[in-house]
Amino acid sequence: MSYLLAIVTFLVGAALGVSVARRRMATTGSGVSQNGAATSPDAKPPRQPSGERSESNSTELPGELHGVLAAALNSLPSGVVIAAADAQVLFKNSAAEAISGVRHVDVLVHEAVTTLLKNTVGSQPQHRRFDTAGSPSRSFDLRTQRLADGRLVATIEDVTERTRIDTVRTDFVANLSHELKTPIGGIAALADTMMGETDPQVIERLTSRIVEEAYRLSRIVDDLLDLSRIEFGGAQDWEPVVVDEVVNEVVARLQPEAMRAGVKLEAKLADPVRVLGDRMQLVSALENLVTNAVKYSDDGKKVLVDVRTTPEFVSISVVDQGIGIAAKDHQRIFERFYRVDRARSRTTGGSGLGLSIVRHVVSNHGGTVSVVSEEGRGSTFTMTFPRDVGTVRNGVVDAAVDERKVSV
Questions:
Q1: CA 340 to CA 321: how far, in whole Å?
Q2: Last residue of some domain: 115, 132, 158?
Q3: Domain end: 133, 158, 183, which one?
Q4: How far from 258 is each of 97, 214, 348, CA to CA, in Å?
Q5: How many CB atoms are closer than 10 A to CB 334?
Q6: Do 207 and 143 reside in the same domain of the chain?
Q7: pLDDT tens-digit readout, 234-262
Q8: Pairwise CA distance, residues 332 & 309, whole Å
Q9: Hey, how many other C-beta atoms are within 10 angstroms of the C-beta on 378?
Q10: Residues 142 and 178 in one domain
Q11: In the Cβ-directed half-sphere of 225, how many Cα atoms lie within 13 Å?
């Protein structure tokens, strides 16, 4: 039994038990029946008229569920349903009602809960995972428990996000294992070949390959550490960051790599503005975008870093004339280790984590990231951030500004 179902069962069972006891005390009193006649301790309870339900199978919401208990159940983020012994619903809390308001989903969930309630026999709890069809799909965890008086309690938890996280975690472990296995396997194979080699030129070539694979492995580990720091670091030690300085630093750092690839790397700056954030994270995000643009551009092509501003936002676009990205891949390219062209990625030596780092940096700073791309026609990645209050004059941030934080 889940903790939620156990808690709800205890609360409802206790409330119903107290209520029944109070009714019995009020009815029996000091050996006097409701009509004033004396009653014997051995007297049998009056027979109910035909067609009336027993107290434990009432189809009306019990009075004790009004007030404190109802408020407690309504405060829960998960759905709670209380039903009579024949599975007829007596009470739904606010979360269960909210599910009922979702088109199509309400019917499917209601049918699943009703079926599970009817199949709940004895005191043994029942459990079922229920997934809706269509896109986007939703997952629900349904659990039922029969109370001592015969009534039934059901809990409905929306586990869609939990299921997604579990899937991402599983995929991450599988992808990480694959990414680490490739360079490690390459190093082992090259070393094994070199052990029996006597030709100095062959040994030098094999050694160079081993160093390349070691660097590749090192890049994967470094990117994993960066991603972990960015994901869990949050908004610590934020400061006003001048956007032009970030762009100039990244362009200067990657200019030698662009020249070796025969790619022209340029920057188009706007009036100096700033954002409030982590300078290292912002540099890391832009560096990943520019690095990808250079790697996937052919000799003679151009990569432009374009900065534009509005009164409230600043956007940094990285525009390339490279191979482009198919529309079907646009939604997945920000996932860890996802690659559009694995063969070319192995050649360029990327870790597959760069765009995931970009996504998390932008999220940490309350911004958005978008991509516009077509196969064979290049790509444009745009990061948009809220501007910090204040202006920049001659490279110096105006001191008389509001140092407010951007909510993430």
A1: 16
A2: 158
A3: 158
A4: 58, 23, 13
A5: 17
A6: no
A7: 556 688 999 999 999 999 999 999 999 99
A8: 28
A9: 21
A10: no
A11: 6
CB atoms within 10 A of CB 327: 10
Distance (Å, whole) CA 297 – CA 286: 17
Q: 25 and 123 in one domain?
A: yes
From CA 77, how far away is CA 193, in angstroms rounded? 60
Residue type at position 367: G
What is this structure's pTM? 0.55
- The per-residue DSSP string of 286-342 comes to HHHHHHHHHHTS-TT-EEEEEEEE-SSEEEEEEEE-SS---GGGTTTTTSTT--S-H
Decide: 6 and 125 in contact? Cβ < 8 Å: no
Rounded-to-integer distance, Cα 124 and Cα 71, Å:
27
> 16-27 in b/e burial notation, b at 16+ Cβ within 10 A?
beebbeeeeeee
CB-CB contact of 80 with 73 (8 Å): yes
**Under a CB-based contact definition with an 8 Å cutoff, are residues 285 and 361 in contact?**
yes
Domain of residue 219 covers 160-233
Rounded distance between C-alpha atoms, residue 353 and residue 404, angstroms: 31
For tokens 């209380």, what's the residue?
A: 82
Q: What is the pLDDT of residues 106-153, one digit of tens each?
A: 666 777 777 877 777 776 778 888 787 766 778 888 888 888 878 888
Distance CA 115, CA 382 (A): 49
> In this structure, what token pair is assigned to residue 202?
């062959």
Tokens linked to 132: 């809706």
